[in-house]
Design a protein that fits this description.
Elements (H helix, E strand, L loop, with lengths): L18 H18 L3 H7 L4 H7 L16 H29 L8 H17 L7 H29 L5 H28 L5 H14 L3
Helix pairs in contact: 3-4, 4-5, 4-6, 4-8, 5-6, 6-7, 7-8
């Protein structure tokens, strides 16, 4: 039997893509390039704020601790100095998360970044070696910050539920419970500090008040 020659494979003719596809590609390319050239104003808006800026946003005084006060032992003074440094960092994280939600994502730091940073901060605070008489104050602060984290988590959940067109009133209600719980613990911590150190002096009384008041969300 005579073998038939194999058919030669030929490529199909080139057909240019539709105008709509070319337009979409052009737009995508433009967006990719624009993303690399972020205006300085946008960078500034998302940059971390300082402790002083966090207090300024709250329009609140920022009294510093006086560790040289005769009302503290050396160990208490060293511990409280470190404690309030961490409280100041918690204030920065709270302020940026609050700003994010209030500005609808235009400023501040979003929940995922807040979550990572505040979890690391709580871990440091919880591991801080505390004098025996200050362990309860430390525990109250750790729990208060965790309540604030839960507050922001439920705020996010409420927005997600609302975006689906569902009733989010119960989620908002639980958000308020976390807010109240955090505030109560901060009030308790302040009361304990005032009871523990009646001779700390006005400078330190102001420092106790300013740090815990500004950390409070209420």
């Amino acid at each position: 039997m005579k073998k038939k020659p194999a058919k030669r494979r030929t490529d199909p003719p080139y057909v240019p893509p539709p105008v709509e596809m070319m337009t979409a590609l052009a737009v995508a390319t433009f967006i990719a390039i624009a993303a690399l050239v972020i205006p300085a104003r946008t960078l500034a808006a998302s940059a971390p704020i300082t402790v002083d800026q966090a207090y300024e946003e709250m329009a609140h005084r920022h009294a510093s601790l006086d560790p040289a006060s005769a009302g503290f032992t050396r160990d208490e003074a060293a511990y409280l100095s470190r404690l309030f440094e961490l409280v100041d960092l918690a204030i920065v994280e709270k302020a940026q998360a609050w700003t994010w939600y209030q500005s609808e994502g235009k400023k501040g730091k979003a929940l995922p970044e807040y979550r990572v940073r505040v979890d690391a901060l709580v871990e440091r605070l919880d591991a801080l070696p505390a004098p025996g008489n200050l362990r309860q104050v430390q525990a109250l602060l750790v729990d208060a910050i965790r309540d604030q984290r839960a507050f922001f988590e439920t705020w996010s959940q409420a927005l997600e539920v609302g975006a689906r067109g569902q009733d989010n009133r119960e989620v908002y209600k639980s958000r308020g419970l976390h807010l109240k719980a955090s505030s109560q613990k901060l009030h308790q911590a302040y009361g304990q500090l005032m009871d523990l150190f009646p001779n700390a002096g006005q400078q330190n009384f102001d420092a106790f008040y300013d740090h815990l008041c500004v950390l409070d969300l209420l």
